[in-house]
Write a structure and sequence with these properties.
Largest sheet of chain A: 7 strands, parallel
Radius of gyration of chain B: 25 Å
Radius of gyration of chain A: 34 Å
Strand order of the largest sheet of chain A: 3-4-2-1-5-6-7
Helix content of chain B: 55-70%
Strand content of chain A: 5-15%
Oligomer: heterodimer
Largest sheet of chain B: none
Number of strands of chain A: 26
Largest interface: A-B, 51 and 42 residues
Shape of chain A: globular
Number of helices of chain A: 48
Helix content of chain A: 40-55%
């Protein structure tokens, strides 16, 4: 039953396709025949002329005092109600509204509990989510009477209209990209020639869209006679309806063809999260912000789905299998469509245990394994189960989400924690590099947010044994437990299914889960016939497979090979699809090949898809459309497949991709493409990226795409390695020819160049070093240049410290790699690059001492340098030994995540061994003394340390060790004048002094007290101030914290508060759970916590925030009433005795019991 | 604050409305309704008040477009914190909450329950009033809000009277009221159609409720448009309802179509085919299941 006529309008009003509404200037009179708003304006300014159209305004006196007139008009808007038909039309979840009307009456109909309004009045505002259905972008082509700025107010004179027409045309020209070939454009209340936006202006907008995309309702005879309209209708670009849009929508809804408003479940339970006995309403602004990054599992997903027949249940199960890899089908989990694999029990228990803990979670739980073995469904299931228990709030981030931001998650956690100390479970099926989850967890913990991240990644074999909470998803079903369970599970859909599936499962592995959708016939009645066919086919595949020896088939596991056989031997759907791709349409030249448009389209979609990414529709459109428009839908219809799907995200951005990355991989292979061709497709997409801002979807896609193709790809870092330089060239072209200049893209470009050059350099053998390839150095130079340009783009302010640090870190990497390359040929020349790399790495560290990568660069460059000790002078060896040791000293190891800490200790051990073997002589140190005395003194002092790793130890020092530390301090302090310009040595001095005084390293545990007398604090202050005056440590947050602590204990309380306020600002941007930990308490000189008392000056309703006035200090300090077990404490009440603790967000009053409990 | 005060306020509003809107003779905001009889217990007083207020706002005040006036409170800053609008919108859920059993497993009354519970919680600290003093608090607050609300409506009418845009606003109000029917209007239309068809309707009220449900579900209560004749549309709907008597059952189900045509359950084609089958069957009700399927296959050329 092939459809020959175009799809009816209602089939496109399905929430999946973009739908834009245009309201013409007749909208107010459409129903009643009279525009009361216009009538009032004309009464006031045109002597009561009868209203016919808005051009009448120009003939009156409205323009004489524009500001007053507009204010009066604005006032009038509130006197009239939106027409009732509009209330119906507004119920539809539009992606955007355009209007030629100038009033704001209509906007009232569109505001609702689930939708906020984002007006656009001119071209200055370019929204990042212009199709967001719950933040409806309303474009006023001619401005609005509620505005006062000249470029946002409507014209009141004919000449002003002429001027504004240009703006209106430009605003309307964006519709083509917004509507996309998938969407519809609906016009209602259009006044034709009487409308300010005349048919002549409307014509190009509609003409730029595909046939049957635009539908005009309430079409009058006058409109039907208009020459532009006639032309558009004749070209099938415009469909006219005499009926009103309201009636059309109502009829369609009544027939069950569309749904107006939200589903009943969402209407009843949407935006509401019930936890234990509490119902939390999510305000629409929070909802919109969080939805950019994650799906909020509100109560609507828990509503029992309606009863369905067995046939429908089977068909929903297939749909569940088909779509779960994109995003979870919650009703499917409700219907128990998720087959639970064995590892899920461990996952669930681990997550439950961590959720119950009261700690902040700076380490995530990670599941890893190959593609297509049930990770996505398991994660969806976990999210659903935890939410179903109603104990914890849950967020879900799917694999296709390209722009997850910490602040969005933070705002959600904040809302939840404002009710009770809830831990939010963030299930992130991102298939990202596992380090990303660590960073994210750490960042949330540093902001004091209680969130547990559960992430997914590709199979990793090199996890360190100390890394906890890593769960491997086995590729194979467990013969005993999983196989039978799976068969039983299938039997619940049809009795005969389990028996037939047994034949398959015996020969397959758990990749069966991803192929199951293809194996199951469309209807239950076809099951026996369909499956038999597939099995026969499957067996044929096995036979073929058995005769092949192909390196691409990873491993020798028979099951694995069999699973590959299913896909690689092209089932019919794949064969058909490929055949069509090669035969339809005219051909064009691409990647040195003649290909059809369909083939190109498939390639453009499949390459990112196989890397787990969907393509933003806009990029795809630009890539496929060189001239004019192209009917993408028609193109997709030609291949008639469900392999390619498009998905709107929560903010209305459209992405297109393959159903599953495994299928994308197979299609890519079947298209007979080479890696070269894949790269060409990638380049075609990249060159068509455009941007609206730093966090724009397209830029985010490009960055993710490059990351997944690039040297740090979590999938295969070497697959595209040969073409890194080529890809970098495309990025350069994008910058230079299309002005897409973005720091994050430039960083990728530089990394690709560095990796490409490094790889080529590594391949140089001793024999070909003579023929040194100048291209390698050019690549390093180019990468260096790109980073330097990027550095110029970043505004120099405190808030950008992190990005500066990352860019410097990459620059140091490039220079370091260049040093190693040149070292092969010319040691002396190479050393200058080493020096530059070192300087830049220290610069990066000084901006962000929590950043591990510059330390890494310092380590591998120093290691390379010191290995060439024969070529180096003794003082150079000594100096660089001192430098690397100093780098380790200032590293904030405790703020590194688990993995970085492991790497750090590994690096330190390697360098330690190397230094030990170097046996730096006294002569060398003396020589160094002449050049760099502070480094020389540092080396001498370092050698005096009781243990080389004492600065990283968490143990309490013995008396002897304390005394040794005191000696180290005394030695260095003797030479204070010589070291006071050297921040790194000063920091070392501070640390050994602290050790000698307290027996512990800085920040070693919670709620420490220190037995410092006033003169100790003064000495401490002097060292800190001197250290902060050096370039190396001016931004160091630990020193800033200690500065605040010193001021406080030296009775400079207000200065202390200022420092902590600055620190609080910084901690918004930095990570590390230490920031919310109360590391030190205000203490007396005998090392006991000081006790204070005071009265409550304020407390919030929820009892989780309060402020107390500390009489002794005459300051206000925050406190948490719940921690004092007095959530209902009132203003004026005494808080009793308490301690003052300090975290990186400032001083906080704490109950004495917290300290006492710690001691006991 | 007594019932007499309330009645007085209501009358003042009607008088004012009729003065303002002289183009319509004897224009009133509230049609005639039963007097409020409060009873003695606190619980009874509150329940009766809610029920009476529902009748006043959504039955007696429906045809006059009270809702239009409520929307104007904002225009004149008479309800700056939306307290009165929230009060007005709460009456319907309160009535439903008490008149229907919402404790059953029906998930689709969550919003009503939530609205009511939030209100009870804010007043009495409980999900639902239990003790006499809870009921009393609810009654007192509701009565106070009723006076405030009616007083604001009265002031709103005065503001409209003074407004330079009064004439145009009255026209807008009139447009809003177009298509609004009172209970009596519905009853009369039902009687008219039923007697034309020779039907004898036992309970007008029951039928009217069914009609209102239907209109509500179609969102047609206020927006019926058939040319300009809303009455005619309602008559058509009443006729349709009266004719909706069960006939001989068609021998096909969705499962037959899924099986015979191999169409995935949930596909809209199933609906189309069954609709076609219904038309064929209506013309020839003696067709067997297989005959009907064959005819369908023939017709659809499958």
């Amino acid at each position: 039953m092939k459809q020959t006529s175009p799809d009816p309008l209602y089939s496109k009003l399905n929430r999946k396709n973009p739908a834009f509404l245009f309201l013409g200037q007749n909208y107010l009179s459409l129903d009643s025949g009279r525009d009361h708003f216009l009538a009032e304006i004309l009464r006031k300014y045109n002597n009561g002329e009868e209203p016919t159209d808005y051009k009448q305004i120009f003939l009156g006196e409205a323009h004489k005092s524009k500001e007053l007139t507009l204010a009066w008009m604005h006032e009038r808007c509130s006197r009239f109600s939106p027409p009732q038909w509009l209330e119906i039309v507004a119920k539809f979840p539009w992606n955007g509204v355009y209007t030629s009307a100038i009033d704001e009456i209509w906007t009232r109909a569109f505001r609702s509990e689930w939708r906020e309004i984002q007006p656009i009045y001119d071209l200055d505002f370019d929204p990042s989510e212009p199709r967001n259905r719950s933040r409806l972008h309303c474009t006023f082509l001619y401005g609005c009477v509620n505005q006062t700025e000249a470029n946002k107010t409507p014209p009141l004179k004919k000449l002003e209209l002429t001027r504004r027409n240009q703006v209106a045309t430009n605003l309307a020209s964006k519709l083509k990209e917004l509507i996309t070939p998938l969407g519809v454009f609906i016009i209602e209340g259009y006044a034709g020639e009487k409308d300010w936006f005349s048919p002549e202006s409307l014509y190009p907008v509609i003409d730029s869209l595909n046939p049957h995309q635009t539908h005009l309702f309430s079409a009058t005879q006058e409109l039907r006679n208009d020459e532009y309209i006639v032309e558009l209708v004749n070209n099938k670009k415009l469909v006219l309806y005499s009926d009103s849009l309201e009636n059309y929508l109502l009829n369609a809804e009544e027939s069950g063809l569309i749904q107006l408003g939200e589903s009943t479940a969402v209407e009843e339970y949407g935006h509401l999260i019930t936890l234990e006995n509490e119902s939390i309403d999510i305000p629409i602004s929070v909802w919109n912000q969080v939805s950019r990054s994650a799906t909020i599992l509100d109560d609507s997903i828990l509503v029992e789905p309606e009863y369905i027949s067995e046939d429908k249940r089977y068909s929903e199960f297939r749909q569940f299998l088909a779509e779960s890899s994109h995003s979870p089908i919650w009703s499917g989990y409700h219907r128990r469509f998720a087959f639970q694999r064995d590892f899920e029990v461990e996952l669930y228990n681990t997550v439950q245990k961590k959720l119950k803990s009261k700690d902040l979670h700076d380490n995530p739980v990670i599941i890893h394994g190959q593609s297509g073995i049930g990770k996505s469904i398991a994660l969806g299931h976990l999210a659903f189960l935890i939410r179903e228990e109603k104990k914890y709030p849950v967020l879900f981030i799917n694999s296709k989400s390209q722009n997850t931001q910490v602040l969005d998650i933070k705002i959600f956690c904040e809302l939840m924690e404002s009710y009770a100390p809830y831990t939010t479970l963030v299930v992130w099926d991102g298939m990202l590099d596992y380090e990303k989850y660590y960073q994210f967890s750490r960042k949330l913990a540093s902001l004091g947010k209680k969130a547990l991240i559960v992430g997914s990644c590709y199979k990793i074999n090199t996890f360190h044994e100390n890394v906890k909470d890593i769960i491997e998803v086995p590729s194979n079903f467990n013969k005993q437990s999983e196989e039978n369970k799976f068969l039983e599970f299938l039997g619940t859909f049809d009795d005969s299914l389990s028996e037939q599936a047994r034949k398959i499962i015996e020969k397959s592995d758990s990749k069966i889960l991803v192929s199951l959708y293809r194996l199951l016939p469309e209807t239950r009645t076809q099951i026996s016939q369909g499956l038999v066919q597939e099995i026969r086919y499957f067996e044929r595949g096995i036979n073929r497979q058995a005769s092949k020896t192909d390196k691409s088939k990873k491993g020798n596991n028979t099951n694995m090979a069999l699973a590959f056989a299913i896909l690689q031997d092209k089932p019919e759907w794949l064969e058909e699809m490929v055949e069509k791709a090669f035969s339809i349409d005219e051909k064009e030249n691409f990647s040195d090949e003649e290909i059809t448009k369909v083939q190109k389209l498939i390639g453009l979609i499949m390459i990112p898809s196989k890397l787990g990414l969907n393509v933003p529709l806009e990029i795809l459109m630009r890539s496929i459309t060189k001239e004019g428009t192209i009917d993408l839908i028609n193109l997709l219809n030609k291949i008639d497949t469900d392999i390619i799907q498009w998905y709107p995200d929560a903010t209305g951005n459209y992405q297109i991709g393959a159903r599953h990355s495994l299928e994308a991989e197979e299609i890519t292979k079947s298209l007979r493409g080479s890696i070269r061709a894949e790269v060409d497709y990638a380049k075609e997409l990249l060159i068509n990226v455009r941007s609206k801002g730093e966090w724009d979807t397209e830029i985010q896609f490009a960055v993710n795409f490059l990351k997944n193709m690039g040297p740090n790809s979590p999938i295969d870092p070497n697959y595209y390695a040969e073409y890194f330089q080529d890809i970098a060239k495309t990025l350069k072209q994008l910058r230079q020819e299309h002005s897409v200049i973005h720091v994050r893209l430039m960083l990728q470009e530089a990394m690709l160049l560095r990796e490409s050059a490094t790889k080529k350099s590594r391949n140089l053998t001793d024999s070909n070093i003579v023929n040194f390839d100048p291209q390698i150095e050019d690549m390093f130079n180019e990468g260096e240049l790109v980073i330097k340009q990027a550095l110029k783009l970043v505004e120099n302010n405190q808030g950008n410290k992190k990005i500066f640090s990352i860019l410097y870190s990459e620059l140091a990497s490039i220079l370091g790699a260049k040093f190693i390359h040149i070292l092969k040929q010319d040691v002396n020349n190479a050393i200058s690059y080493f020096e530059q790399a070192k300087e830049i790495a220290f610069k990066s560290l000084s901006l962000d001492s929590e950043e591990y990568h510059p330390l890494d660069v310092l380590s591998w460059t120093t290691e390379a340098l010191l290995k060439n000790k024969k070529m180096l002078s003794p003082e150079l060896i000594a100096e660089n030994t001192a430098d690397i040791l100093q780098a380790f000293t200032i590293a904030e190891v405790q703020n590194f995540d688990q993995l970085q800490q492991i790497k750090f200790h590994q690096r330190r051990a390697i360098i330690g061994d190397l230094i030990e073997k170097l046996e730096i002589s006294k002569d060398a140190i003396q020589s160094l003394m002449a050049i760099k005395p502070s480094a020389a003194h540092y080396l001498i002092a370092y050698k005096m340390l009781p243990k080389y790793d004492i600065l990283q130890s968490n143990l309490e020092l013995s008396l002897k060790q304390k005394s040794q530390c005191q000696q180290v301090f005394d030695y260095l302090y003797q030479h204070y004048e010589l070291i006071r310009q050297d921040g790194k040595t000063l920091y070392f001095l501070l640390r050994v002094w602290w050790l000698s005084k307290t027996g512990h390293n800085l920040f070693y545990h919670e709620r420490q007290t220190v037995p410092f007398h006033r003169k100790d604090w003064e000495l401490c202050l002097t060292i800190i101030e001197d250290a902060r005056n050096t370039q190396d440590l001016q931004y160091n947050s630990s020193l800033k914290y200690l500065l605040g602590l010193c001021y406080f204990h030296l009775d400079r309380v207000n200065e202390s508060l200022d420092v902590f306020n600055e620190l609080k600002e910084d901690s918004q941007k930095e990570s590390g759970s230490r920031r919310v930990i109360s590391s030190y308490l205000a203490s007396t000189s005998d090392g006991k916590p000081k006790q204070y008392n005071g009265e409550v000056v304020r407390r919030n309703d929820k009892g989780n925030k309060g402020q107390v006035y500390v009489k002794d200090l005459r300051i206000y300090v925050d406190f948490i009433p719940r921690i004092f077990n007095r959530p209902d404490i009132r203003k004026g009440e005494s808080l009793g005795q308490f301690h003052i603790a300090f975290n990186f967000r400032g001083p906080i009053a704490e109950p004495i019991s917290l300290y006492s409990n710690k001691r006991s | 604050m007594t019932y007499q005060d309330l009645e007085q306020l209501k009358q003042n509003i009607d008088t004012l409305a009729s003065q303002i809107n002289q183009q319509e003779s004897n224009f009133k905001i509230f049609e005639e309704m039963k007097t409020l009889s409060l009873g003695t217990s606190d619980e009874c007083q509150f329940l009766r008040l809610v029920s009476w207020l529902y009748s006043m706002y959504f039955e007696a005040g429906r045809k006059s477009g009270l809702k239009w006036l409520v929307d104007r409170l904002e225009t004149y800053n008479l309800d700056p914190d939306m307290r009165l609008k929230n009060y007005f919108e709460r009456i319907n859920p309160l009535r439903t909450f008490f008149q229907h059993n919402l404790q059953s497993g029906d998930d689709y009354n969550g919003k009503i329950k939530r609205t009511c519970r939030d209100w009870f919680k804010s007043l009495c600290g409980v999900d639902s009033p239990l003790e006499d003093h809870h009921w009393n608090t609810c009654f007192e607050v509701c009565l106070k809000e009723t006076f405030d609300f009616l007083d604001a409506i009265k002031q709103c009418l005065c503001e409209i009277d003074r407004d330079e845009s009064k004439d145009e606003m009255l026209k807008d109000w009139l447009s809003y009221r177009k298509g609004l029917f009172s209970v009596v209007d519905y009853n009369n239309l039902i009687r008219e159609v039923a007697s034309d068809l020779g039907f004898n309707i036992d309970s007008i009220k029951k039928f009217r409720n069914k009609l209102e449900d239907k209109l509500q579900s179609k969102r047609l209560t206020k927006i019926i448009r058939d040319g300009d004749n809303e009455t005619m549309t309602i008559k058509k709907i009443i006729t349709d309802m009266l004719l909706e008597e069960p006939t001989v059952l068609m021998p096909l189900t969705a499962s037959d179509v899924i099986e015979e045509f191999s169409i995935e359950a949930g596909n809209s084609k199933i609906f189309e085919i069954l609709k076609k089958g219904k038309i064929i069957f209506t013309d020839n009700p003696l067709l067997s299941r297989q005959q009907l399927l064959d005819k369908l296959k023939n017709e659809l050329q499958i």
